[in-house]
Design goal:
mainly alpha, 0% strand, 74 residues, single chain
C-alpha cells in the first residue's frame, strides 16, 4: 500500500487498490484458512490509514464507505 500511495491516487483509486490487493488476498485466505481476529484488526487499520491518508478523524464513517454506491458508499 505504501508504494501505491506514492502515486497520489484519488479516493476511488485508493478503494480500487485496496479491493485488488489486501481485499482480494485476505478474502481468499480467510475463506481457506481462517484469520485470527488480531490479524484482521491489524489489516483493517492499515486499510483505513491508506484510504484516509493517515487522517486522525476520517471524513466519512467506515460503515458508510462499505455501503453500495447507490446508498452513498464507495
Amino acid at each position: 500500500l505504501t508504494r501505491w500511495g506514492q502515486c497520489h491516487p484519488t479516493l476511488t483509486g485508493r478503494k480500487n487498490i485496496v479491493q485488488m490487493g489486501p481485499g482480494g488476498i485476505t478474502q481468499y485466505l480467510t475463506a481457506v484458512q481462517g484469520m485470527p481476529r488480531q490479524v484482521e484488526d491489524s489489516l483493517n487499520k492499515m486499510v483505513r490509514n491508506f484510504i484516509w491518508k493517515g487522517a486522525k478523524v476520517p471524513p466519512v464513517n467506515g460503515n458508510t464507505l462499505s455501503l453500495p454506491i447507490q446508498e452513498g458508499g464507495l
